[in-house]
Fold each of these.
Amino acid sequence: MTNTTHAERRHASLDAAFLCVSAGVFVATAAVTIVSCQSMPAPGGMRMPGDWTMSMVWMRMPGQTWPGAAASFLGMWVLMMVAMMLPSLVPMLWRYRQVVGTTSHARLDALTAIAAAGYVIVWTAIGLVLFPLGMSLAAIAMREAAIARAVPLAAGVAILVAGALQFTAWKSRHLACCREMPGTGCGLSGGASTALRLGVRLGLHCACSCGNLMAILIVVGLMDVPAMGLVTVAITAERYASVSERAAHAIGIIAAVTGAMAIARAVGLG
């Protein structure tokens, strides 16, 4: 009985340490992200034809090289993703720690870090694709006034579509995978390769699940701190809510209404 009690206390202490470290990482990445957004030369962005604002993240600073701009964007993107996704990732990592087949506490911490790294790798790869695409579209909008004027309408349509995706089987399936992985039936071993694969797999499910919500953030403004906060709350709510499908649908309704209003304004009906 004494040994069992001691083991339980030891596990509780390790869980508390894991949660404290996770909270520290969240606070640090969120703080750096907010400071980075507010320290940009024009944090509000650049006014464009069509009465909308382009985020400065899609523009090179004076004297900045393309590799430098890419590195700056990727650093900002990874920090932002860690801060935004950590509240919904921590429960999955905690469950992984409960079912992984190892009794070494040091190894358990290492495997948890590897699984988290696999998750981050997925979002880093998304950032690598997003940077040239965003920069190219921004360059076109700055060069062609007609296209720039069409952006508010396109943004409204994108938000409307993102809201509609909240009601699809695709969303439900990937959201369920995000909530249920890893489970006790996964047959997890204590191997580093297994941890990395699980992290990548979870990252892919997460990207498919909340990609539409991240698209809303990109459309609204990637460096918009209030928008980041709202999207983070939305992503977390549909993972944590006891009736998560209802949470996803409520978010979908809000997004769809917001998109419809944006479309009405863009066509002069609002």
Note: The two ends are 70 Å apart (CA to CA).
Amino acid sequence: MPCCSDDVCSSRTAMGRYRVVLWIVLAINAAMFLIEIIAGLAAGSAALQADALDFFADAANYGISLFVLGLGLHWRARAALLKGASMGLFGLWVIANIVWHTLTGTVPSWSTMGVVGIAALGANLVCLALLYAWRNGDANMRSVWICSRNDVLANIAVLAAAVGVFGTGTGWPDIIVAAVMAVLALQGAVTIIRQARGEVRSLAARTGVTSPVRGR
């Protein structure tokens, strides 16, 4: 006799695959964080440093997703709230870094930005392909997908900044791209938090438990 129904077995198999995918993308993001933060500091690039911090935040987010993967919707939704908040903090940090680079007039190394940007884009495309099947899941899964999608857009923007720095000889393209990345992080944070709050309120309504998560 089978130890579980077809639906339960299928669900367990899918979650097992998702867990493996999360471990893979976590390792990729952790490695790219180390590469980009060193390159970003050496090149004096606000965009590369922002992208490096994004890799770090994503690695932490994937770790949180792995921790709550076997837990109930309540805990997964609250984990998504935490990840949304971390994305918002990342956006604010990038804005502060932009102000500093603007005041100091830094001109980054466009060649380093280009080489590292291509490597980062390749890494994030792999992550995006691995996570594609779970893009329409619950708030926790969707938050992972949004992070990876934003990363690909950010990498393309970093490459555009490298071309801009080469063409203009100034740091303004780098600063502009870093600002775009900050906006993407803040928009992603709002999307994730909104869906997670909706899931928490919906679960509270079904169970009759008052949710501490307020808001319209």
Note: The helical segments are 6-43, 46-68, 73-104, 110-131, 139-168, 172-207.
Amino acid sequence: MKHFFLLPVLFCLLLTGCVGTKPIDASATKETKALYHNLGKLSENHTLFGHQHATEYGHGWRGDEDRSDVKSVTGSHPAVIGVDFSGFSGRSPEAIQRAKEEVRKNVIDTYNRGGVTTVAWHFSNPVSGGGFYWVDTVSLPGVKYIIPGGEAHEQYKEILNGIGEWAHSVRGADGKLAPVIFRPFHEFDGDWFWWGKGHTSREEFISLWRFTVSYLRDSLDVHNFIYAFSPDNKFKNEAEFLERYPGDEWVDMVGMDNYGDMGRDRYAIDTAAAKLKIVSDYAKKAGKLAAFTETGLESIPDTTWWTNTLLRTMKRDDMRLAYVLVWRNDTRSPTHYYAPFPGQVSVPNFMKFYHDPYVLFEKDLNNIYKRKKFLGIF
């Protein structure tokens, strides 16, 4: 057997610096609390591998049942599947309903297989055109409009009502609600999204984050979300990383998106690792989970990228990373892909990555939604 999930909880009780065992939602479902705890335990020795939109579509295909490019290469789906709430607003009611149903099915299927879902939100600007990107000639700084006191606040609540309704509908074959890692307003330290740093103040962003969590959790009784905070890679120290942090009581997981240091703009493994260590160290100190929430190299022309860049970055220091996620494989583009498919030049190296005991795929997970008992202790 390649990996074993049996990591003794007793060690967590005896050692200091162990990740907290409860999410910020005191009423979180049993399965959500178990996922949070187990991700923390696994991150002491492993990192789960994730791929965005892995089972929805891939290089040259879409909508095939139980398929992913990663599974076609390795025999296993990624341990973490990325989906998106992008279709939950800014479209016709019929299109929104279709999007919700497609994401619901994906999340339930992943949960039933024993995998993990993380949700990004490429949120179309609710007060102007431009979609989720900032477009100088079109976009309005939407955050100030949708936070409490803003003229579009009630409209934002309606959008969240739709997310809340969806969250109550994702029940697995066991009848339980499937937990998801919800990662809204990502890469907020850049200017490319309308919620980015150049288009909203620190106070407005924090207000948006706190209201979003509070409304979902406390008003809509959503108790199957784990909340992840992830800037891009512009920070150089902990203070910069935490510049727009809403506070420990509002965040379950801290992360970083980083393509630039991982080969897109430059190969800077030491720089990328140093930034990841800032994230991991803060998580240890604050009792949070940590993750490498987005990365990858488009087209993967580097035949050793998986072991010589990604794995080396994550292993350089003593870090605890719950998962690493690479971006999507576009179904139409011949070049826009971030995970290998059969015949892609990095497949041999990806198989080395797959067989490394540090990395976990879906087949390696064992009851991640249940707390283990050891010596009678939960």
Note: The first strand starts at residue 47 and ends at 52.
Amino acid sequence: MEITPKRGRFGWLARIEELDPVRDCQTIHRITAGYEFPWDYQRALEFALFRTYCVPTISALLAETGEFEKRPQKRYDDTALLMAEMLEHGYDSERGRESLRVVNRMHAQYDISNDDMLYVLTTFIYEPIEWIDTYGWRRLHPKERLATFHFYCEVGKRMGIKHIPQSYTELAQFKLDYEERTFRFSEDNRRIGTYTLDLYCSWFPAALTPAVKQGVFALLDDRMAHAFGFPAGSTTVERVAVRALRARARVERFFPKRTRSRVTADATNKTYPGYPVGYQPSDLGTLASPRVRSCAGRAPAISV
């Protein structure tokens, strides 16, 4: 359902208040991630995926595939874009269903436990919520929290994940309990964590690599740092990073509201230039269509 915002900086929030968090979960979550907090949402998902690599069974599988060692940027872009397709167009749209088929086909190659799948799903819900409440230009509306929960629960059902808790708080408790039970150091955690950290550093000039690493270390909690075998972050760097993020939020509060969704509109995408122009969801993933090779490098950049 396409909707337009009301007038003023809080026009999208006014629209959200008119919607139902169950029936309209995709619309509300698209507003949150695509219009209100696209930058924050992207950063939160980066740390959400990073968090899943603290589970030895998950990192062992990723180490086995070799994707993070050989093609970390593509692996990252595939995951982000496949989920973004479902969010931008809906999980029951043509592109959404195609994205789900790609995700399910990739997962079917491996023996992945239901609890690991469910845990990864929880990070897409609660990590962005926590990040935006901490660093966003406004706090989330209760309907936004519930819409995020219901949206990803529906995605989870279509991925064949079983025993998904039916309440927001119950699923949040599952996440906490699972982390308490599974976050342990392993060499696979360290390897996948290091590949991912190197990927983050590659997005910046080489001279900034030490600063980027220190910034990431500072934003990791103690349990994550231990699971990766990373050094504890500097409290001074943490204070600087938090102040910078909150200063950014104060400035963004005075920006005009966005009138175009930025869920999939990323002209700087490194693996798929100009995505989504010239691409289909089937071009993504480890079993991508050969057509992606003819698309890459020739699709025009899109305006954002």
Note: Residues 16-185+272-281 form one domain.
